[in-house]
Amino acid sequence: MVDFSSLFAACFFFLSNALTLAVIVRDRNNYQSGDIDRLYGMEAPFIIDEWRHQIQRSPLFQAAGVLNAMAWFSFCAAMMKLSWSLSKGGTRLVGVHFMIVSMVLLGSMTELIARLMSFGEQGLWNYVYHDFELSRWLPSNISLGRNDYIGWKVIQLVSMANNGFMIWVDAFEWFCLVIILWCVFYSVAKSQPRMMPMWWARWGLLISLLALLNFVSDGMRYDRWVLFSGISLLVTLINSVFFLPVWCFAMAIKLPGVLYSSKESDTATE
After folding, report:
1. Distance (Å, rounded) from C-alpha 29 to C-alpha 95?
2. pLDDT in tens, 42-83
């Protein structure tokens, strides 16, 4: 018997992050030397080509976003059940388990709001890309009949600003995960007898340390973009595609036994 909310969280986390990373890695492999300088220089042909790729890959990112939101809500349900069991019905380490529930709810709601905003943003960009005149904004007597590409440069800067918001949303979710897993480790370590295996709690602690590294890397991207984006990509690959889904899968196997023990304890108390 398995806990399906934990199992769904494991599957959705894996699918969401694997899909996102596959698109990102493919895009990075297509980059050529000097592309960053072309972006900083606002070179119109490069920007137009980037937007063509962005519109093409938008459905994949939206699908990954839906899967990630489903992962967080499945994870939320699993962590609520785990917190209730580890707290023995709200009678043990109440503050620690309240923190777990609070952070998982906060992370889930943040993910939901961010995805709704992302869907609206992507729909708007698709509309602007196909229907708006972006190549010629200046009057003909100034541009001399040539394309000025100001529109493309404007939407590129606005898009980069919006992406900065999403980076901090992702960073905040990593921070929530750090707090959740630290609290879980503390609760399991203090429980007598052990309600969950100690190796599982230590595995979660390792994930939290990597999540903390990811949080720091996301915050430092604007200092050295290439370096810290690479670190964030590597840590996300290790943590989100392998470590976190495995941890959730182990919880899916162990949690039903903990829930049963908790119910038996409540029955014996009554």
Report:
1. 47
2. 888 888 888 888 888 888 888 888 888 899 999 999 999 888
